[in-house]
Amino acid sequence: MVNQQKAQPQVGPGVKPRGRPRSFDRATALEKAVMAFWEHGYEATSVSDLTRVMGIGAPSLYAAFGDKRSLFEEAVRVYGGTYGSFSGRALEEGPTARAAVERLLREAAAEFTDPGHPYGCLVIHAATNCTTPEVEDALRRQRNASISAIESRVRADVAAGELPPDTDAVALARHAAAVFQGMSQQARDGASREELEGVAEIAMAVWPRAGTHAG
């Protein structure tokens, strides 16, 4: 009989031993993806950029997160629950629409200029030069949801007599959103926290008060 021996795996230069794929910390890798998308935007951040900053190979990225768009959607959710969560808290916790928006803008001045992470707002900046309709639409819906939240607070204050009855809730909400979005870009262009706090102060000076006419 022929003695059949089990073939031994080849080991040597240029030969990679088989085994389990290298593991990685998913949360850490995702955090790095958040930073990459925040700094460069969705369109300008390639898969190769992501694998480099996340410290993983493309197969691991696809296996753990799906495609680039799926990874971005998860990154936006992480951002919204961490760095960007101040905006939701401000609009929910402010006793009045005015107080809520003033807090929103003042905290934006601090958050948008924090040197511990990319400047500005990920949801705003990631849409720059975006040519992927699904991503562009998702970010637009998120920004519009914030405008609707401000408008709802304004309408509630009008009903409660905190604002004049002729207050244009739509225009006032869009004004606040425009200032917020502009502050994000100003931060990326080098504006300081103090400079953006000045912008917030001027923005609030135009808000109508109870007992006055909005127009």
TrEMBL record:
Residue runs in coiled coils: none
Region (Disordered): 1-23
Keyword hit for Transcription regulation: yes
The keyword S-adenosyl-L-methionine is annotated on this UniProt entry: no
Record domain HTH tetR-type: where: 23-83
One Pfam entry name: TetR_C_13
Keywords: DNA-binding, Transcription, Transcription regulation
DNA-binding region positions on the chain: 46-65
Name of the molecule in the record: TetR/AcrR family transcriptional regulator
Originating organism: Streptomyces galilaeus
